[in-house]
Amino acid sequence: MRPSSSSSWSGLLRSCYSTMRRISSSSSYSSQPLPPPPPIPQRRVVVTGLGMVTPLGCGVGPSWEKLIMGGCGVREISVEDLQMGSFDREAQLHVFDQLTSKVAAVVPSGTNAGEFNEELWLNSKEGRSIARFIAYALCAADEALRDADWHPIKQEKKERTGVSIGGGIGSMSDILGAAQMICEKHLRKLSPFFVPRILINMAAGHVSMKYEFQGPNHAAVTACATGAHSIGDAARMIQFGDADVMVAGGTESSIDALSIAGFCRLRALSTRYNSIPEEASRPFDCGRDGFVIGEGSGIMVLEATMEFEHAKKRGAKVYAEVRGYGMSGDAYHITQPRSDGSGAILAMSQAIKQSGLHPHEVDYLNAHATSTPRGDLIEAIAIQSLFSDHANSGALAFSSTKGATGHLLGAAGAVEAIFTVLAIHKGIAPLTLNLTQPDATFNSPFVPLSTSKEMQIRAAISNSFGFGGTNASLLFTAAP
């Protein structure tokens, strides 16, 4: 016989009362403190694979060789570089004429060695959902994974491999084109892949999907510090046991009408050297007048390494060890660092402290220096303040590789971290291009390297500072 409604409610109340009594009777357990979390082993992290796409060339070899030889990836831009193909020619020419800066560090495209093959990375069947900044990350990640010889087949290893790739801006050219469609009432022509093409985390997403990596999937967005934060965060994920292997770095492709116009309006770009583009990016030089916008990607493969652990167990090639990672915020201004360099000092100090080294044990420093009058000066002040006698004696070698590559924005920290790792691995400190007359405020012999220098490098720092006062420093040491 079906029970009445009142009897059903009565049964439910009796059940709830019984449950509450059981919970109450076990309250003695809840009064006991929970046990502490299990101890976290201090896992060391090493670099086992490198990949890059830069204005100097596609690939680590071409980029490094051209950098060391004093090559430059900056050139004069054309109307076609503005990526305004959906606009009429008159609009394109008008915008180009209005731009005060007409130089950029562009990734060379083509099918020759050292060139980015657009047919392979952008015009495949998946190309509709892949913007250029995503394609750069896929290309660099492919090289890094092949270099590390990391191609896991077992499910467990895929679950222990993660991705940490960030970007600064995303695909502004897609946004500009979509805005035009809306203004012209052509909404139905908007690509269904518009959103996936502009989301910055889709670079990490596409890499993880291509290789079926199911570990942490992370995308930092911290302006020009993005690449360094992505690598540092990935290293900590390994240290804390979230993954055994991380594919980490940054990517950017913002050579387009809207991005260049925005930075021009901000008065951040170089305008004095439009007729001699290869001399436009000149970090620490007294003739600097702004940065040169660049594009590209830098990706590292990071692995845990201790006795019987991942990298050593599989006999991986080791370039360097990630020994320290420092972060800070200026809490001061949207674009300008504090005049005393305290934000940069704090980030570098934390990286050095975490490494267990003394500032005098750092042999080389890859500066963030973008070729802006104020930014370069303040970073120099910070370096002198932190390293004091070690810097002023000339024992600390430092340079900025942005003279050759321009400023790669969200990819800068990763590309320059790779250059720093290669400096350790190959024993060559790269030069600062276009340093013809060092800023008079620098104290001799505290001047950046104007030529590449062969030297033993046991420990090196790579700096990255971004808009909003975000700072990151990575400290690498020779392979353990």
TrEMBL record:
Domain Ketosynthase family 3 (KS3) positions: 42-478
EC number: 2.3.1.41
Pathway as given in its UniProt record: Lipid metabolism; fatty acid biosynthesis
InterPro entries for this protein: 3-oxoacyl-ACP_synth-2, Beta-ketoacyl_synthase, Ketoacyl_synth_AS, Ketoacyl_synth_C, Ketoacyl_synth_N, PKS_Beta-ketoAc_synthase_dom, Thiolase-like
GO cellular component: a single term: mitochondrion
SMART domains, alphabetized: PKS_KS (SM00825)
A UniProt-annotated Pfam family: ketoacyl-synt
Family (UniProt): Belongs to the thiolase-like superfamily. Beta-ketoacyl-ACP synthases family.
UniProt xrefs under NCBIfam families: fabF, PRK07314.1
Protein name: 3-oxoacyl-[acyl-carrier-protein] synthase, mitochondrial
Organism encoding this protein: Stephania yunnanensis
